[in-house]
Amino acid sequence: NVCSWEDETIIFVKTGKVSIRSRFNNEEEMTLLEGQSAICKKHAVSLNPATAPEDVLAWRERRLVFRNAPLDEVLSEIERFFNVRIEAHSSLLHHTITARFEKEPLPKVIDIVATTLNATYEKQDSGYRLTAK
To answer: In the predicted model, what is the mean pLDDT of residues 52-74?
Structure first.
């Protein structure tokens, strides 16, 4: 299973094995076995820490799953998922979030994230802005 965006690609092996190589460094090759995943970012390929397969494949079923994830990663994933821009005040970025969203609309996801952070949010022309209370 491959999930790719402009700045990163995640490869997850559900069954079998897959060899991957950085397009910038032909020497850097990695073989992934069943249940393993890797993240390819710009010039680096790295083994993704152990992740539950159902979490990795969640996007296929319109689900978002976060387990103690840094806020910047959570917001990036929500941005990609909903094709929207989300800004957060720097004072919020030290937070982590554990949450599961199943086919929730964007306004509800933003509201839950803001409530979890004890923050407020406002809709802007370009997306959303989260601010500490």
So the answer is: 79
In sequence order, the 6+-apart residues with CB closer than 8 A to the CB of 113 are: 74, 75, 78, 97, 99, 119, 121, 130
* pTM, to two decimals: 0.70
Selection from 103, 69, 105 nearest residue 84 by Cα: 105
Model confidence at 1: pLDDT above 70: no
Q: Which of 77, 104, 64 is nearest to 5 (CA)?
A: 77
pLDDT at 106 exceeding the cut of 60:
yes
For residue 126, give every residue at least 6 positions away whose Cβ sits within 8 Å of its Cβ, in sequence order, or none.
85
